[in-house]
């Protein structure tokens, strides 16, 4: 079975529709990722089944939280999961990818050009630096982050980027301890855990933590990286 057939079968199995245009772009994404991975270490998962399930399908878990024309920021975009996957599936979304690694930023720029995607861009900067810039602060409806850092640190990265009422969608594996540890950070930063969504993916259990911005984030946040790392809220 070729890649596109596998992709269609898995999308149907998990309840996702798939247009011919999107299927073609996912195939192009897979080929470009595997080819580029030889010169830049982007992912340890390169087999067809693994990429379809563990990267593409997992990334799509955030789609119910994306309104029409959503302004989305992705923190630590790396190989483009979930940002590029979400853009392919939801072309109406306006996406900004924050990636501090220059080589990975170059990959993201090359990938989006290769796939002919508009309304998506990569910014070579740390999220906490973006949160202090006027053009990015309180500019987004949704912030996504997949396997980036612990929740209390992630909240300090994300909340300054969100508009009031905006949501952080954090992709996690096991997170019960993290949620408890993040209660103080959430209170300080104006965030409320409004939903915990658990789902199974090829026998593995995953979780989305949905935090909603319910109060203004104090201007002094986010702090500098060294301070966040050494003294998390």
UniProtKB/TrEMBL annotation:
One Pfam family in the UniProt entry: GidB
UniProt GO MF annotations: rRNA (guanine-N7-)-methyltransferase activity
Subcellular location: Cytoplasm
Keyword Phosphoprotein assigned: no
Family annotation (InterPro entries): rRNA_ssu_MeTfrase_G, SAM-dependent_MTases_sf
Binding locations of S-adenosyl-L-methionine: 76, 81, 127-128, 146
Chief location category: cytoplasm
Residues of the signal peptide: none
GO cellular component terms, A-Z: cytosol
Enzyme class: transferase
Annotated keywords: Cytoplasm, Methyltransferase, rRNA processing, S-adenosyl-L-methionine, Transferase
Superkingdom of origin organism: Bacteria
Its EC number(s): 2.1.1.-
Function: Specifically methylates the N7 position of a guanine in 16S rRNA.
HAMAP family: 16SrRNA_methyltr_G
Assigned protein family: Belongs to the methyltransferase superfamily. RNA methyltransferase RsmG family.
Protein name from the UniProt record: Ribosomal RNA small subunit methyltransferase G
């Amino acid at each position: 079975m070729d890649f596109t057939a596998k992709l269609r079968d898995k999308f149907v199995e998990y309840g996702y529709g798939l247009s011919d245009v999107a299927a073609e772009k996912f195939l192009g994404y897979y080929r470009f990722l595997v080819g580029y991975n030889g010169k830049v270490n982007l992912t340890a998962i390169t087999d067809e089944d693994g990429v379809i399930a563990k990267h593409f399908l997992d990334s799509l878990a955030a789609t119910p939280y994306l309104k029409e024309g959503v302004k989305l920021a992705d923190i630590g975009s790396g190989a483009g999961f979930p940002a590029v996957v979400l853009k392919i599936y939801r072309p109406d979304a306006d996406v900004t990818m924050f990636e501090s690694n220059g080589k990975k930023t170059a990959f993201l720029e090359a990938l989006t050009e290769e796939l002919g995607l508009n309304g998506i861009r990569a910014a070579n900067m740390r999220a906490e630096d973006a949160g202090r810039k006027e053009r990015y602060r309180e500019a987004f409806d949704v912030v996504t982050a997949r396997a980036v850092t612990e929740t209390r640190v992630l909240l300090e990265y994300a909340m300054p980027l969100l508009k009031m009422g905006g949501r952080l969608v954090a992709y996690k594996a096991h997170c019960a301890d993290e949620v408890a540890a993040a209660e103080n950070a959430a209170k300080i930063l104006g965030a409320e855990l409004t939903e915990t969504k658990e789902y199974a993916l090829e026998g593995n259990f995953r979780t989305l933590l949905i935090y909603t911005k319910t109060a203004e984030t104090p201007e002094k946040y986010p702090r500098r990286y060294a301070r966040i790392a050494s003294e998390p809220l």
